[in-house]
């Protein structure tokens, strides 16, 4: 295992774009192998929608988000990711996860020009 980045104070994180619960851990393992490490400092659920088929709209169900989040919590418990969080979640979707138990430690939010997620930032406090 090459942990050269620890000597330089680098914080390693990645985002999972695969929201099939059974694919969350394998996706992380692929990242770990690519980075030649045993863990990430942070692993985030990116973009809270599931893509099903080509030409179908993006959509989500609460149970999908919750199942995916439970898999993320397991990765933290196994110390594969020291911190877990979300990326680009609305306030409503963030609150869905917080109702289920362990709250995300990181809420990476998109802020571009006049577009911001101030409600989701407030919910995360």
From TrEMBL:
Question: Per its UniProt entry, which superkingdom is the organism in?
Answer: Eukaryota
Q: Which residues form the NADP-dependent oxidoreductase domain?
A: 16-104
Q: What GO terms are given for molecular function?
A: oxidoreductase activity
Q: Name one Pfam family in it.
A: Aldo_ket_red
* InterPro entries hit by this protein: AKR, NAD(P)_OxRdtase_dom_sf, NADP_OxRdtase_dom
> What PANTHER family is this protein classified in?
ALDO/KETO REDUCTASE
Q: What protein am I looking at? A: Aldo-keto reductase family 1 member C18
Q: Which organism is it from?
A: Thelohanellus kitauei
